[in-house]
Specification:
Bound molecules: flavin-adenine dinucleotide
Oligomer: single chain
Structural class: alpha+beta
Number of helices: 11
Number of strands: 19
Order of helices and strands: EHEEHHEEEEHEEEEEEEEHHHEEEEHHHH
Distance between the termini: 39 Å
Helix content: 25-40%
Shape: globular
């Protein structure tokens, strides 16, 4: 019997696999995707400084950052609202950091992690889709399809990092639909950017502009009806609508020549999904399988990477024959509780304050932004939460 089966080697499952690669444990990861492929389309991911530290500890940051243009440092984040006062600017230099965070393409990140897993000889089966999970008090069995061949694997613990918790029973995850859609794409520039990311709150939802290579990654949160129009419009009309939302904001100064074009437009619905329990018999959930958050605060992937790192630390501290036991799983739940729940609550609360069209909240919103900018201690606390995770708010 193996020690750990990792279902899903996306960014989170692959990170767990890397964190266990040098341990004296029998670990195998399965992924439904083909070798060299990445699940879903490409997307701009925001990695916090804390996630960089996780990758550095695992000795993989060099590989992630080495691919030309794969990682773009964020020197500052500028937060403002459309049609209201208040603005806050968070600067890396204020915190003596090389960058507040990094924008990395999903494919580039996945390719770097896959290459590192191969280099370290970690067990990873591609084209292997798990179809069923069954647990006894002593072990867990995963049924899967390796290509077309049905296979069965058993282990002391299954770590589910499949992004959707698809093997869980009905009702194991809660859903909250925000009634919003994210339109994403890549914005061409007329002049080089200065590494500033923007979050602009509008009545339909936040717009994020993320410096990525020599372009800006766009995440435009809006209603499903408007998203349909934004996807269908010609580029000139799309850019004019974006320009109108940006208004006379700091974006204009930071992107002097404006946007030259929009490419790779697509959309996806925005929901909060979270598992009611992150552990079950002989099974633990992590990454998006445990919680899929709205991208407003860029917390989702970073929280998932901390899930992976902390689970690995817990496993490395656990005697082999107690891996997956009730006590070991309870210890992991305690370890992740505060970070996880505060990450979900922070993102959901931010949406209550900022993802709202009511004019009545425009004033408190402006006040919150102004207070953040004027009160150094509050700003430091907020920035630390963005950099290292929201558990810093309660520790
Ligand atoms: C459409 C979309 C757009 C997003 N855009 C952004 C964004 O703009 N910015 C941002 O910061 N975050 C974004 N996110 C969130 C971000 O992508 C996630 O936080 C991150 O991908 C979570 O990583 P993960 O490894 O937990 O899951 P995933 O990235 O979903 O990886 C899951 C892995 O499991 C594998 N898998 C699935 N089912 C099985 C199975 N049955 N058996 C074996 N393997 C399986 C898949 O092939 C995949 O490799 C987006 C998410 C989605 C879905």
């Amino acid at each position: 019997m193996r020690d750990v089966l990792i279902v899903g080697a996306g960014p989170v499952g692959a990170t767990l696999s890397l964190a266990l690669a040098d341990a004296d444990l029998d670990v195998v990861a399965l992924d439904a995707r083909a070798a060299g492929a990445a699940a879903g389309g490409d997307r701009s991911l925001a990695l916090s400084h804390g996630s960089r530290l996780v990758f550095e500890r695992l000795g993989v940051w060099g590989a992630v950052a080495a691919a030309p243009g794969a990682v773009t440092p964020i020197q500052a984040v500028d937060v403002s609202q459309f049609g209201g006062f208040g603005r806050v600017r968070l600067e890396a230099a204020e915190h003596d950091l090389p960058a507040l965070g990094y924008i990395v393409g999903y494919r580039a990140l996945q390719a770097a992690l896959d290459a590192e897993l191969a280099r370290r000889g970690a067990g990873l089966r591609y084209d292997c889709a798990a179809t069923r999970i069954a647990a006894t008090p002593a072990y867990v069995t995963i049924e899967a399809r390796q290509g077309r061949e049905p296979i069965e694997l058993s282990a002391r613990l299954a770590a589910l990092a499949d992004g959707g918790g698809e093997l869980l029973p009905e009702g194991a995850r809660r859903h909250h639909d925000y009634g919003q859609v994210a339109v994403i794409g890549k914005l061409g520039l007329r002049a080089p950017h200065r590494g500033v990311a923007f979050e602009r709150f509008t009545p339909e939802g936040p717009i994020a502009l993320l410096p990525e290579g020599d372009r800006y990654g766009l995440v435009w949160t809006t209603t499903p009806e408007r998203a349909e129009a934004l996807l269908a419009w010609p580029a000139t009309e799309f850019l004019a609508a974006l320009d109108e939302r940006i208004g006379a904001s700091a974006v204009r100064d930071a992107i002097p020549g404006g946007f030259a074009g929009i490419a790779e437009r697509r959309s996806f619905p925005l929901r909060l999904e979270y598992a009611t329990r992150i552990v079950r018999d002989r099974c633990v959930l992590l990454g998006n399988a445990a919680q899929a958050l709205h991208p407003i605060a860029g917390q989702g992937l970073n929280l998932g990477l901390r899930d992976a790192y902390e689970l690995a630390q817990e496993l490395l501290d656990t005697p082999r024959d107690t891996i997956g036991s009730r006590d070991a799983l309870a210890a992991y739940t305690r370890r992740r509780q505060v970070d996880r729940l505060s990450g979900i609550a922070f993102t959901h609360g931010l949406l209550g304050l900022f993802g709202n069209a009511l004019p009545i909240v425009s004033w408190p919103r402006g006040l919150a932004l102004t207070m953040l900018d004027c009160l150094p201690a509050l700003k430091r606390t907020f920035t630390r939460a963005m950099l290292f995770g929201t558990r810093t708010l309660v520790s």
